[in-house]
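Minutes, project check-in

Agenda point 3 was the complex the collaborators sent over. CS summarized: two entities, 664 residues total, and the question is how they sit relative to each other. Sequences were read into the notes so everyone works from the same version.
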Amino acid sequence: MILSVAGFIFFLFSELLNTGDLPVPTREDMPGSDICREEMFVGGALWGLINGGADLYYEYGFDRMVLQEIEWQGEEFRLELYRMESPVGAFGVFSVSVQGCEEGGPVRTGDCLNRFQYQLYSGNYYLSLINYSGSDKARDLSVEIGSVIASAAGDIRVELPGLFRQDMFKKVIDEVKVVKGILGLQNALPHLASLYEGLDDYIVWHLKLEEKEGQAEILLTVINDCRDIDASGKLALQLKDAGFAARSNNDRIVAVRSATGGKRDNDLLNLFLAGSGE
Amino acid sequence: MDKGRRNFFRLLAAGSMGAGLSPTMAAKPANITASEPTATNIADALKYPRNENSMPGRYPGRVVKIVDENSIVENKIKEDAVYEMLEAGMTNLTEETDISLAWQHFVSPGEAIGLKVNPIGGKLLSTSHALVKSVISQLELSGISKEKIVIFDRRMQHLLDAGFTPDNYPGIAILGTEHVDENGSYYDGSGQLYSLSRIDREWYYWADCEMEYDNSMLPFMVNQGKYSYFSKIVTRQLDKIINLPIMKNAGASITLCLKNLGYGVITNTSRLHSTLWAETSAQVCAFPPVRDKVVLNIADGIKGCYDGGPGANPQFFTNYGMLLLGTDPVAVDMAGYDIIIGKRIEMGRQDGFADAGLRQMLLAGDLGLGIADRKRIDLRIPGSSI
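CS then shared the predicted structure for the full assembly.
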């Protein structure tokens, strides 16, 4: 009886450890630190933490998140490590959450550091590490903590569609944004939001380009909404009405809009499609 | 084992992570099911006669904007500066020279006064303590005793996390509809959610959409189904409410006066986000416990954000260095919208003003809760020639 109870406790404990098997730092990684709070949020519990702010994560496919509040060398940090259901979800959250990143990435290419926050993604993970002071010391410590997670989580990049893997986009590849629903659109691409009304299940890959004449944008939409077999054709028409050059093929629509418009858009569309496999 | 680890396992046992033990508990929220167009019981709200306190209150369309760039220095909000800003705003709004007389336009000794804060952003970005403490000081000057003042929001844990604690506010009641006890539990000894005794089933917002919540989500929604019940804090405990939202974006719209009330005083809100986001912000404010009790709105823009809202993402924080005051929540929101969305455009987060972001204000205007027409808004900026 005692053994079976012990066995059950061990089983339970193992389950808990497995559930908590996210690559978060420990005190050993941050000598002298205090992890004042450590909590995991699963399923709908994220709503309890950030209310409506959670909706964006659910839209991208939220699995779980560990929250840590850390005090280290007189600095305070709030660490949120999200595990999403897919690498696209993790990359998507990252892509719409970063701005004003220092060039180059302090830990590795593709992460983002600014005065108050360090962010990275790898595989299914998205990390937000906030410091409260914005000091140089907090920045340096953020990089140290970020390095621990980057090392544990690996460097697993999302596989971009062929359209964006072309050499011509190499320098701006980190600017690609991924949106999986209306909240992502409203946050990152509000000028496009009305075009996607009525669609339920889609992914938009979006890239802004700086040209001599002004900004151009290119987007690839993949529609998984099976309620409407001609959804891609309708969206292509709507995009054209909004001034894009657009082409649809089954469930995929590629669209381009430049500052010049007209023939230039069609030329760009043909150029981008030529080597893309779309 | 360090303190953090001990907390971790205590919390596991308490339930939030315990959700991971059960696949059903860990399930994400089910999809919304809704008919088109989504019906609500807004017509019921409009049957109640208005009174002298009903929105838009004493000064329809009037918004006072007080700016002090030195109200926040090196990320520290200056309470003395905020106090003066509030005083300037109140006297300008009411056209009184005496601050206690200014407050007496809205509150009277003996009334129970609620301060509806927004603590969702925790220590990072919640209604500032500098503003809340200034409001309390000036209420006391006008004859309101501390014992009659309540700081409230829907979720107790958010209040505590943001520093709205008895230690910081001695003598002031701090209340959350979604109550959590000292052990971190949302359930009482009999297994009932504390919040169930804190909602008023006589007042509800009904909408023809629903959502299934898992066990990890239910403590924060209180109930499922098509009914969202009003908090008793609003319906029974308070005589007047001062609305203290914070200047944040919500995508290409804003979360300010209307949203702070609409989603801050009812249960079962998650179902409303997808299909009735703007409607809820406007329509809940049309029910008498809100419409007839919220006498003043003071939007805290000392520090706010232009993206990442309604969450708190520091790279998008900005020091607006301002307060917006008015009795008319729609007009204050319109003024705030122009500032917040203007900042988004300036920072390259959106290309231009999108009409969809105005929907909650336009709906509220149609419900008679305030002025949404910019031409009819009297924006006052003391010290400015504009």
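Noted in discussion: Chain A has eight helices and eleven strands.
Follow-up: revisit at the next meeting once the mutant set is ready.
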